[in-house]
Amino acid sequence: MSTHTPLTVATLVVTTVAVVSGALVASLAYRAANRTASRELWLLSYGLAAIALGPLAGALGAVALGLDAESTLFVQGLLVAPGFALLVRSLYPAGRPVRA
């Protein structure tokens, strides 16, 4: 008997789409950082990669380690929270005045 409910399959599909599209955006930001040698774009690409890897790490923890939902969310948060911190840091370059 299969333990895959429709919700499990839908979660797998949505997580896969999120990880793949997040990785695509992160790789585009990485390529832009290489072209421009911009520190802000490097931080942006690292932040986007961390955010994209969050759901992947959570899903792997749930499937491979058998984590419950609460632990899975915690694992995701361990990557997503620093990823957003990197995004915020990339938007506020150090040493340059911010113009309105």
TrEMBL record:
InterPro entries: DUF7521 (IPR055943). The keyword Membrane applies. Keywords: Membrane, Transmembrane, Transmembrane helix. The chain crosses the membrane at residues 6-29, 41-67, 73-92. This is Oxidoreductase.
